Amino acid sequence: MTTIDATHAPDLQSWVSSANDPASDFPLQNLPFGRFRLEADADWRIGVAIGDQVLDLRAAGLIDSNDMNRLMRLLPEARRSLRHAMVEGLRAGSPQQAKFQAALHVQAEVELGLPCEIGDYTDFYTSIHHATTIGKQLRPDNPLLPNYKWVPIGYHGRASSIQPSGASFHRPNGQTKAPDQDVPSFGPCRRLDYELELGLVVGRPNPLGQPIAMAQAEDHVFGVALFNDWSARDVQGWEYQPLGPFLSKNFASTLSPWVVTLDALAPFRAPFSRPEGDPEPLDYLVSPANTAQGAIDIELEVWLQTAQMRAAGHAGDKLSQSNYRDAYWTVAQLVAHHTVNGCNLRAGDLFGTGTLSGPKPEQGGSLMELSTGGKKPFTLSSGETRTYLEDGDTVILRGYCVRDGFRRIGFGECRGTVLPAVRF
Amino acid sequence: MTTIDATHAPDLQSWVSSANDPASDFPLQNLPFGRFRLEADADWRIGVAIGDQVLDLRAAGLIDSNDMNRLMRLLPEARRSLRHAMVEGLRAGSPQQAKFQAALHVQAEVELGLPCEIGDYTDFYTSIHHATTIGKQLRPDNPLLPNYKWVPIGYHGRASSIQPSGASFHRPNGQTKAPDQDVPSFGPCRRLDYELELGLVVGRPNPLGQPIAMAQAEDHVFGVALFNDWSARDVQGWEYQPLGPFLSKNFASTLSPWVVTLDALAPFRAPFSRPEGDPEPLDYLVSPANTAQGAIDIELEVWLQTAQMRAAGHAGDKLSQSNYRDAYWTVAQLVAHHTVNGCNLRAGDLFGTGTLSGPKPEQGGSLMELSTGGKKPFTLSSGETRTYLEDGDTVILRGYCVRDGFRRIGFGECRGTVLPAVRF
């Protein structure tokens, strides 16, 4: 478990002045990792965000390779040493300012890619509020399945189609069947949705056959990013029995460029508890540290910018807001559960948390929730209405941590745009 | 679609004499690809099996890199040229014999690895016989779900835990809940099963957003191997709703070392048709070539060697036999379906066909079928009985094609052994 240290001190200032803006996602206390390249580059470089700049870690002499998956395998102590070295070089008054200055680039002028090579991608289902709301639509009498409070439900997803923030994708075509149809039909998805998730990026691997215990689980997580698991609800409804979602999910997902380390998130940990009357998890999913501070207080937002808004220079409407603290299973529990059968994790593996909806109806992390399965259209500030996504819509996820006495730690944004379906 | 040419002529003999044995899996007409290394090697080399030997393709001057995933991206014409060049060098009387001879190694003396770096792994469910038998156990009144005859059902699986043939793995621990229990319990899986599958290895990639049509689908498949998708049935029963199998499958899978190319399988193609009265697939899953010869006639066998048999020098019992011709969906249909929504495939992606059971009860490709969900133990030649797998059991999958007027084309074997569960 990470702890608060001198790198979290709120009065720590950087000689990169934009990092000292209280509204910045990327103060000196954050230093999230990502990959970037300049216009002339073929290969990715490793960078950390600082204010509106990005620091080239290799050029600054802090690392000797631009292999992010290798860097992510660092032991927790080595990772913390690197954090301290970055803070030392970037703090106001650092004797290394000149050297680091030469390794800075303006974030808006570089290309930000996926933060690493993604190995296996697993999607979980950790929001009991999401599971219950969706369950009510499908099974009004029995919304939450009996395994939900015992098993951190997860399934494997598609890694190849995970795109960096800013990319667009075509509305998928597929088979769908309405209840009143006898046979399925083929064509563009009509219930295209987003899912507000966090992406947990695995750092240290475990060998096949060697489970990771709760006490060590967080040592294997490099950090946290924003993640949008786009979903074709009509395709999903027809295809998903009995083996789970497939083409309804694997046409595209979007991952934000910056991975915020668990070290940076140390001040925002919160106790993990369950509602009165819910069962205690089985022993392999329990640890004292997890009970004391297994949750993380991360505010999350979904914004929608339609093509009409974009043309009018409008940044979009906020559709909902929720908090990762409300998840039913913690980061450590996901790692311990995923490996309890001996399954091996590798650096660069990605866990999606599943849609992070809050307890209130307006806190749904997907349109399926906000529009009650497409039955209740809502109106945007532009006067347009939505149930599901239309072509040209851009969805933007944002996340940030705030706590009195600490600097704001932000996640930047995760942005993707829907293009029309490919014609058949 | 591949065609029969001079490389399939049955009278073609090799100067590697073991390849001319009619019982060999690896005659000159086969030439499956794999990766091997000598004792002193750190890196894998690309080889093809020929009789009881393996030809080092780079040492023979046929390729200039040992990157199998790169080789698999070859265009079909280039792949066929390579096949012709291999046959030319290995045929009896070849002027290149001396050069190729220097690139030969005894198969039994080298280490055979996974044939490539595996990207995304997808498991399908193409045997209607398997789906029906399993469905009967779960839903006696409604064994086959309504989507089965329309959708080539598939889901994403775990790539990290795919092991090469010969490896062993620990019986997984996990949560299970019997119907008469109020709460789940944790411990070693008690219903450990194998699944007899073929693994289709993707060669040529497609870009995200560009579906692959039926007519081009097979050009994207490099070849076919044997695949065992080990399954923890008791874990699966408790965890799989609503998002599909997860820990019940991702603790281990086993892939055979040799990938038999679709070119080598050209003589064993068969018409693809459906039982009278079944619906025709939707248009995107139909092509004239697929109807004419979309199926492949591959005989498949499952063998079980218990620890007791092994100690007695007994090779094991054959548990069942089936044929890939009986699958409900073809190779081309799996590719076309997987990409119809724009999902991108990459070289090295693996498709499991799903358990390949035949129409007769004794042709079940898993113990869940052969023991009727564990209710009917059967007796082995050693006098031992089985419902599910015991610690020390080795499961061996075999496959081969035979047709009058052609040489036998074999797949070698896919072997894995169950070790006791890790203690908690």
From TrEMBL, chains A, B:
<dbReference type="InterPro" id="IPR036462">
    <property type="entry name" value="Fumarylacetoacetase_N_sf"/>
</dbReference>
<feature type="domain" description="Fumarylacetoacetase-like C-terminal">
    <location>
        <begin position="124"/>
        <end position="418"/>
    </location>
</feature>
<dbReference type="InterPro" id="IPR011234">
    <property type="entry name" value="Fumarylacetoacetase-like_C"/>
</dbReference>
<feature type="domain" description="Fumarylacetoacetase N-terminal">
    <location>
        <begin position="29"/>
        <end position="115"/>
    </location>
</feature>
<keyword id="KW-0106">Calcium</keyword>
<comment type="pathway">
    <text>Amino-acid degradation; L-phenylalanine degradation; acetoacetate and fumarate from L-phenylalanine: step 6/6.</text>
</comment>
<keyword id="KW-0828">Tyrosine catabolism</keyword>
<dbReference type="InterPro" id="IPR036663">
    <property type="entry name" value="Fumarylacetoacetase_C_sf"/>
</dbReference>
<dbReference type="Pfam" id="PF01557">
    <property type="entry name" value="FAA_hydrolase"/>
</dbReference>
<dbReference type="InterPro" id="IPR005959">
    <property type="entry name" value="Fumarylacetoacetase"/>
</dbReference>
<keyword id="KW-0479">Metal-binding</keyword>
<keyword id="KW-0460">Magnesium</keyword>
<dbReference type="Pfam" id="PF09298">
    <property type="entry name" value="FAA_hydrolase_N"/>
</dbReference>
<keyword id="KW-0585">Phenylalanine catabolism</keyword>
<protein>
    <recommendedName>
        <fullName>fumarylacetoacetase</fullName>
        <ecNumber>3.7.1.2</ecNumber>
    </recommendedName>
</protein>
<feature type="region of interest" description="Disordered">
    <location>
        <begin position="164"/>
        <end position="184"/>
    </location>
</feature>
<keyword id="KW-0378">Hydrolase</keyword>
<dbReference type="GO" id="GO:0004334">
    <property type="term" value="F:fumarylacetoacetase activity"/>
</dbReference>
<dbReference type="InterPro" id="IPR015377">
    <property type="entry name" value="Fumarylacetoacetase_N"/>
</dbReference>
